[in-house]
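Here is one such tokenized protein:
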Amino acid sequence: QTKAINIEALHTAPTLTLPVVEVSDEEKTRSAFFEAGLYLARQDAWHTLAERIRAADAERSTTPAGIPAADLLAEGARADVVTAAMRAVKTGDEATCESILNDMAAILEEVPDHHGIAYVLAMAHVDIGWAWRGEGWRDDIPAANRAAFFRHFRKAADLIDAYDPFELNAPMLASVRCALLSSESRPRERASDDYEDLIDLAPGVGKYMK
């Protein structure tokens, strides 16, 4: 026997509605800072960018998850340069890679002695240094790649060493020094001091506590 279906009852039956968050507040905030840095760099608005980075760092501005806004602004600011340089790294074109970064270094002439831009450039060198090194064991890395890794890390150190993180109230500068420990032959001798400086400058920033 076939049972009739009450179509009207189906339309009036209670339904369960589940809220869905397509993009989290964290993702929105990260994207906003990154895109701001990218936009200002593409507009050659280096003075504005330098001040935005400095202010975000001084205010210890972060995303909801504790990622420093200065990091994200700088990541956006160097994104185009790093992408272009990494293409050169993939083909082993060291000359083109150096030329790209040298062009970016000329920005310091437009914004002289501004540690916000020095930070952007230093982190670009860190990114490219890691691109040359790769993720393999030290003994598996070609000598030329290893040399490029150390060269870029030295350039990053030269940029940052001109500034005092405590005098400038700039934890982002201290964070670069921690990132550069990877190129030290005896990193343990400096690690405690460098990370202690970073945490002293920004004890409330979650990323630096990890």
Observations:
- The CA atoms of residues 67 and 202 lie 12 Å apart.
- The two ends are 67 Å apart (CA to CA).
